[in-house]
Amino acid sequence: MLLLDPHRIKVRSDGMELIEQELRNIYRLIIFSRDHYADDLLNGFLQGINSFREQLSIKNAQLEAQSPEEVTEYLENLKRSLAFISKEIRHNINFESQVQLFHLLRLISPEAHMMHPNNYRRTEVQIGPIICPPSRIVTSLMEDLFARMEDFDHPILKAIYFHHEMIRIHPFVDANGRVARIAKNWMLMHSLYPPIFINTGPEKREYINSLQSSFIYLDHNPGEWNIHTEGFFEQEIKRILSNIRILYNQVKSINRNGRFVQA
What CATH class does 14-21+37-252 carry? Predict the structure, then answer.
């Protein structure tokens, strides 16, 4: 398996520019509004972020779980992991190491961690029609992945890239999707972007099909940037933009008394 070269990634600039523009609009509103107390606007922003954190836990659990009992268990573990990364972000700690990755696995899926404590998988796995890299090269692939993360200047592309490539490597026996998505959102939230999560059944199918199409193409054309992989990146960028706009509208809806009003 050959990892994607970060320097070959190409996404449309308009989506990235819109994200930065919309995020600046939120900060301008909080800092320069003369019709509201800044604390009220900031509280509205924080409430929006906390709401996204809650939805992130719920949507991740629903995406992965196979039964109502699993949803409950997954939700508890995901909430614990989000509380952990929120604390790390408050101390200005970003996601950047394999030690942190194993810690996330312990929080998100203690059972998967206990199969190979602080080690990557020693068995072979398959994702649908895709055979994942053999276990003997997983460690070297993950080392390569973390090394390539240093080539990124933009946190959004860095986060999406890690998510895509980690799931393609599938370094753990279980919980790869949950761990990759939480790691991705750790990086995004550290840079003050809202988290990404899947909202609906159709969106879930789009997400899975997009990843699968990208993996199949790269399996036959190693390292080649393509429309399928680009499509996955663009979908993730659209999800960030959508959540930023929700945040902006929420902050904007606060009246002079610090209360939310219906638009």
Answer: mainly alpha
Read off the amino acid at residue 43. N
Cβ 197 vs Cβ 60: under 8 Å = yes
E strands in 123-245: 126-127, 130-131
Structure confidence by residue, pLDDT tens digits, 3-61: 999 999 999 989 999 999 998 988 887 777 655 544 444 455 556 555 656 666 566 66
Specify burial of residue 173 (Cβ count, 10 A radius: 0-12, 13-18, 19+).
buried
CA dihedral 138, 71, 183, 47 (to 10 degrees): 180
pTM for the full predicted model: 0.88
In the chain, where the domains are located: 14-21+37-252
> What is the helix (H) or strand (E) element at residue 99, kind and residue range?
helix 98-108
> Would you say how long the chain is, in residues?
263
Integer Cα distance of 199 and 189 in angstroms: 18
Where do we find the tokens 């009992």?
69
Is residue 159 a contact partner of residue 184, using CB atoms and an 8 Å limit? yes
Determine the Cα–Cα distance for residues 52 and 239; give it in Å rounded to an integer.
12
